[in-house]
Design brief:
Protein name (chains A, B): HTH marR-type domain-containing protein
Oligomer: homodimer
Structural class of chain A: mainly alpha
CATH superfamily of chain A: Winged helix-like DNA-binding domain superfamily/Winged helix DNA-binding domain
Shape of chain A: globular
CATH topology of chain A: Arc Repressor Mutant, subunit A
Number of domains of chain A: 1
Domain HTH marR-type (chains A, B): 1-139
Strand content of chain A: 5-15%
Keywords (chains A, B): DNA-binding, Transcription, Transcription regulation
Strand order of the largest sheet of chain A: 1-2
CATH class of chain A: Mainly Alpha
Largest interface: A-B, 45 and 44 residues
Order of helices and strands of chain A: HHHHEEHH
CATH architecture of chain A: Orthogonal Bundle
GO molecular function, one term (chains A, B): DNA binding
Number of strands of chain A: 2
InterPro entries (chains A, B): HTH_MarR-typ, WH-like_DNA-bd_sf, WH_DNA-bd_sf
Radius of gyration of chain A: 18 Å
DNA sequence: TTGAAATAATTGACATATCAATTAAAAATT
DNA sequence: AATTTTTAATTGATATGTCAATTATTTCAA
């Protein structure tokens, strides 16, 4: 068991890295010029149109600094625009452009394929157990 | 989002990030000037004294480039030394210094505490299931 | 045996992670 | 109202991740 305690973190790390590499490779091979993290940020803004960068950082579990930089890159790539929030000039309103909406739509199918490929052959019950274990770890580390 | 929390990959990512942050914070608060990744690299060299950087990168799931840079930092920190392997001049022999051995020894207790804190309240059976699920994901993404 | 292919490590470029410090604005307190 | 505190976002510094290109060396094959 002491061994598993050691190995479990090793496997959590390994699995998420392999999944990200696989997912990123799929995007690249289909000609999409976007990273997994950038995709997630746009997706969250589309689903929460009034979200601030700080709220975004909590939602995707990234540092404020990372979000600032990802948003910058997305603006450079013309997937996003930002505008000072007149209600609170510390905040920004983030707008997804047409081109940003399009890429999310076009990438969606690949994302679903990636997930089902990665989870193939895993029983729903076991997946639920694994998910509960991960949530417990999350709670324990907070 | 299709309920972020319901997506296993989100929770895998979240859990490993929180665990790493927690573990890193513990190291910092106990005055150890070393990162989790650096700790892992030294530990692997101690356990595999003839390992090459390339083999190391496979063992810790990192890119060759990352390993090169981590090793560089560890040499700067005087935890490691390297020497060209006379058998094959493309390779290096990596030596852990006394100071490197010491820090691993001293950090060990904290690592164990971190793990047990993160896994507190999780049934052994569930942990095994979670581990099997992660291994399956790893296999699927290869 | 020599030229081609494979391997080990490095480097450059760029993206992301983390912490600390800073700026600007809003909210709370006195 | 003026001062203090809090909040949102940015920036700088450093570490790591990833890919592609490069160098040095070894191995393989014609």
């Amino acid at each position: 068991m002491e061994k598993l305690n050691n190995i479990i973190f090793y496997n959590i790390d390994h699995s998420i890295r392999l999944y990200r590499m696989y997912a990123q490779k799929q995007l690249r091979e289909h000609g999409f010029k976007i990273t997994i993290d950038q995709w997630l940020v746009i997706k969250c803004i589309l689903e929460n149109p009034t979200i601030t960068q700080h709220e975004l950082s909590e939602l995707v579990f990234k540092d404020n600094a990372s979000v600032t930089r990802i948003v910058d890159l997305l603006i450079k790539a013309k997937y996003l625009e930002k505008e000072i929030n007149p209600e609170d000039r510390r905040k920004f309103i983030l707008h997804v452009t047409k081109s940003g909406e399009d890429i999310i739509k076009n990438v969606q199918e690949i994302v679903l394929q990636n997930r089902s490929k990665a989870l193939k052959g895993i029983a729903a019950k076991d997946l639920e157990t694994a998910d509960a274990v991960l949530q417990k770890i999350i709670a324990n580390c907070k």
